[in-house]
Amino acid sequence: MVHIDEATVRQLLPMSKAIDLLAHAFRDFATGEAQSQPRRRLTMPSGAVLHQMAGAHGAYFGTKVYSTHPKHGAWFVFLLYDAETAMPLALMDANWLGQIRTGAASGLATRWLARPEAQNVAVLGSGFQAASQLEAVMAVRPVRAISVWSRTQEKAQAFARHYPNAAAMPTVEAALVDADIVITATSAKDPLFPAELIRAGTHINAAGSNSPRRRELPAELFRRADQIVVDSVEQARMEAGDLILSFDPPDWDFVEPLAHEPQRKSAEAITIFKSVGIGLEDVAVGAWVYEQALEQGKVTQLPLFATS
Description:
Elements: E1 2-4, H1 6-12, H2 15-30, E2 34-43, E3 49-57, E4 60-69, E5 73-82, E6 88-93, H3 95-113, E7 120-124, H4 128-140, E8 145-149, H5 153-160, E9 166-168, H6 172-176, E10 181-184, E11 203-206, H7 219-224, E12 227-230, H8 233-239, H9 241-244, E13 255-257, E14 271-274, H10 279-296, E15 300-301
Parallel strand pairs: 1-6, 7-8, 7-10, 8-9, 10-11, 11-14, 12-13, 12-14
Antiparallel strand pairs: 1-15, 2-3, 3-4, 4-5, 5-6
Helix pairs in contact: 1-3, 2-3, 2-10, 3-4, 3-10
């Protein structure tokens, strides 16, 4: 069994490769050749939470386990196993792994759903998830202009300085004026903007929440949308507050899984990808990192204790 650290994960997993890996994994998910187990959570009286999600693809299966506390932060690890023998293969630091694969899922949705000529992006949020979401969109579309909004203007300005074609905006309304693609990556509990600010032909990646009690998008926008896509309908039923809080009850028959390779139906269509993040995504990219790290000798050996 080997250990793979954060720096190695980041070095070996470029966003464009992660998007291609997820495309393969989701195609296999559609045919039953891959599996994903919805996230489970264990909550402590202190506010600490243990989260676990699992998946299987090809020669591997694995699980990501992470702990969070609202005052003390979050810690992520990923465990990869051999699907044939059940032997543990790798323990991986998984903060970057999670960020990259979450962005890559939105990049894949953008590849399939955004208009080919889409070039103006609005980013609502300025944290680490916003950065990977934007990187993924830039990997699949010729981005010309980026408008950034954050609840703290200083953070929006700091985020925008990382991109030569980006500008911080004072309001959400200003950020959305010319947007062809909208990214929401915030901790918002309530909708960030009214539905009428979204133009026909816009694609939206909503990635900020996997809580059934939080949402970033207004209910009316889902009613206007021509296509609503999720990475897992099963898990979205449990976690996608944007959908759960927008419909009573949610019309899950209208929701498409990303595994079905949804395609934009018209230039004027409004498309939404609601991301919750699934275990299959971790396995798909984690297996690639493991193989590359092993090949390049970028691993640390760990003791392995077996029982029979």
